[in-house]
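Submission sheet (multi-component)
Chains listed below:
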Amino acid sequence: MAHLEVEGICKGWEFPVIDELSFAVEEGEFFVVLGPSGIGKTTTLRLISGLETPDAGRILIGGTDQTRLPPYRRRIAMTFESYALYPHLSVYENIASPLRARRLPANERDKRVKDVAELLRIAHLLDRRPGEVSGGQKQRTALGRTLVADPEVFLLDEPISHLDAKIRHELRTQFHTLEDLRKVATVYVTHDYAEALSLGDRIGVMGTRGRLEQVGNPRDLFERPANLKVAEHLGQPTINVIPSRIRRDNNGLFLDSETGDLRLKLSGESEAALAGYSKDHVIAGLRPQYIRPIDEAADGMELLSAEVDVYEPLGTNGIMMANLGSMSLTALTDPEKHYETGQKVQIAVDVSGLHLFDADSQVRLTGIT
Amino acid sequence: MAPMRRESDTDHPEWFQKKRKSRPLIVARWVPIALVGLPVATLLAIVIYPTVWMFYHSLRDTNIQGLFMGTHSHIGFSNYADVLGSERFQDSLLHLAQYLTFGACLQVIIGTVLALTLYEFVKSNAIRTVVLIMLVIPMMLPPSIVGVLWRFLLTPSNGAVNQALLNLGLIEQHIEWFNAGISLWSIIIADSWNWVALPLLIVYSGRVSLPPAVYEAARVDGASQWKVMRRITLPMLKEVIAIAFILRFTDAFKFVDLVYIMTSGGPAQSSELPTYIAFQRGIREFAVGEAAAYAIIIFIISAVIITLFLKYMKGVMRARGFA
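Outcome: structure written.
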């Protein structure tokens, strides 16, 4: 039984924020909505929670229509991007607030608050106020407030996006280990693709007007993006987008960049993708990890001469912006190497990592359809 | 991500070096001294010197003649003893307590209730603005006008207030608004009309700036309207309400204008506040020494009360993690 079903909800008439959005989240599933800011992710959560009412469409929780119910009758819990902790109440009281509103007996309330605090490792902070704890601890308090409510649907709005990288990673792993989250339907909203890939059982990439560009498991989304937008959104550094022309001659199938600086011989999967494709132009997407500066050419490798424009050493690897005549490519480099601006390098391009998109619709080319 | 410039690790970029080298000494040495010195001198002249002067004369038997002839002598703390022992001063303290409780305090409470009612129940911004402007108008009138206006409204025989109450059938006969025992209430009514919008504005703006997400969290939790008000809104407005109290209380200690215009402290000193007596004794009757003692005593009382408020606020702020 699907626990949360969203059926064709719309919000806003003249300037629709959400236009006919539908998806379903199973019990125990962690569904991540990924998209750039201002695209309607938070609005979606607010509609599910009942803080706002959709102009059209239905929201079903546990099979019953709850579109018109007020938030507190919905068995949902929600964390807010700004945490929304009560600043004048202690961490304990903040976590206990949903239970107080439900008039749970004091001893049971106490037990549940302490259990949740233990689980989230904030038991030693219960007497402090939100102003006296760190950002990560605030976030855990907010999470505790939702966990304690024992809901059927969890709505998490960018819960860890505003924390620094180290705590973000720590909390991310904590999300993995929270059993409670694995028993209910969870909708998790974020703009960070790494969070989405790490946490999501399924991911929905949201485009304009709340349209889901692609829904699938993390591997699918990363390896087979349905369109250019999805490909651009997933991955850091961003995928190289190369408007190209297809050239066929006796030697095989070639991909020439519009600028003429890049000529690649297609083979295998990318060749298959173009089967039955009649247009001349495509957009090629190539993730930076498939472009590497190289010292000595191995057999059969095509090397391109380039000049380093910008180089960022990041420890575990480096990011190089390389100039090939009039076009620029982002490449991932090995950590041991260092490059200077203006340095001449040879780069190798691995065509097995190519994604090809239709030049007009920007939809992925999959071969004969 | 910003590109890293390796060559700039040791050498500063050109624009920075240039700026550092060519920066001239713009001001002469006396300029900073003058800039600090002038305000300090002004402060000394108009605040510190008069205060010290006042304290000095509170210990002497200065009157108008003595002030100009320089013939006043040290009498220790007997001015203070006279003031504290006088029935006039003790009565005025009771009047002050009455004014603080039913004037200043009630104004803050009513202002808070009005502000939160306006915010919670009036959803139209236009209506809110109109109501706010109407409530604020009395604050823009000079106190002398307010005094004269209310004297006029409260005239016993055919004043507007008595007429209205008679017409509504709330009273049988005229209320003698300026008789002993009632005149201070009249002043309190006029003052409340004049100033209730100040706490209202403060609390209203405080309420507007509370984070909306907290209220949404409360809605998801399922807290009732009343519970939200009692457990979230009021606690979060604590320090704002404290500020309203502080402002009204400091005003209470310099509250002379309406007393002077409406009743002149009368009848029979029944509506005198300590400050009014100090004003009366010092400026009207030139008992400079005694008036100075009054002023010092009022200063001490007000300092104690305001310190208590500030201490409370500090506690609230610390609990929020501000201080």
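Remark: The radius of gyration of chain A is 25 Å.
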